[in-house]
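Weekly modeling sync, notes
Attendees: S.R. (lead), two postdocs, one rotation student

Agenda item 3: backlog of single-chain predictions. S.R. asked that every request posted to the team notebook include the full sequence so nobody has to chase files. The rotation student volunteered to paste the first one in as an example of the format we agreed on. Action items at the bottom.

Example entry:
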Amino acid sequence: MITKSYFRKVILHYRMLADGLMYAQRNEQLCQATINFIERREIKMIHTFLAIQKNNEPDISPLFEQWWKDGTKVVVSKTDFMFKQMRHYLLDAKTNLVINKKGIPEPIDAEEAVLNDVDVIFVPLLLSDKQGFRIGYGGGYYDRLLTETNTLKVGLSLSPPVDEILQREEWDIPLDYLITPYKTYQYG
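Predicted structure, as returned to the notebook:
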């Protein structure tokens, strides 16, 4: 059986090989699909990740300005690696960010957010399957976050899902949706 750690290495390597133009085109298409997804729903508060640039993660930060103008609040997390948990903060145009030891941009001067007020959580992933299960970076931070709330769970990926991730853990929580540059998948 191919393990999650093997997939992590392969996908990260593949992302690093992606040429800048291909990444930019896919990311722009993903942003448009994300706009379409949000416009079809009554969303007032979005929890999202800030892209790890060195890993060529999907980057929806170009959408923040319009969301703020529309009155939609944006929430991002700050990771406590010692206690393996995340705290959540409101992000606005004035929020200062710092890059943590994993390359993740995090707020340093933001107001703490109430997770129960979030309407949708955009979840980072390396790979997803057609049942909504995902492979992340392996720290379990988003797995724990997703157990804390019943909000809409939406993965963002620059690639389509694979047929099936065979190695699943009892704590794995499937996504409700997966947005890709090509198609939005609904699960459940």
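Discussion: group reviewed the output briefly. The chain is about 25% helix and 25% strand.
Action items: rotation student to repeat for the remaining queue; S.R. to check formatting next week.
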